[in-house]
Amino acid sequence: MQFNLDSLVVFKLMNGEVIICEIVSEDDQQVTIRYAIQAFETVINGDIPNVNFLRWVPFTDELIILYRHGILAASPPNDAVKEIYAEKLAELEAAEIDATSIKEVDFPYFRHQCRNTAFK
Q1: pLDDT tens digit string along 12-45?
Q2: CA distance 13 to 9
Q3: CB 76 within 8 A of CB 24
Q4: Kind and range of the H or E run holding 4
Q5: Which one of 31, 38, 84, 105 is most buried, by most CB atoms within 10 A?
Q6: How many angstroms separate the CA atoms of 95 and 87, rounded?
């Protein structure tokens, strides 16, 4: 996975999510991004703040279109965030590669719910 640290941006979305991603292209209506990870705060032991990271749109390596009306704020990340982003993205990618070793996953509830949909 190749990404450009100079094209990273931190977005605060209208729904409250914070994502860090690489901008591929943009116009007046939308921003095309990739390698998006979500940053969210949790509290450890009742008072110690902690930041966790998850892939924002899992199960895809494709480009993601983010519509401008859903963006509350945008800012370039500082150097510490760039470093953490690179580390976390590598960890998330390694975890996904490890997950591919699972041969079969049984989701009977999901199959039942999607029986009459395009997920057949």
Answers
A1: 999 999 999 999 999 999 999 998 999 888 888 8
A2: 12
A3: no
A4: none
A5: 31
A6: 12
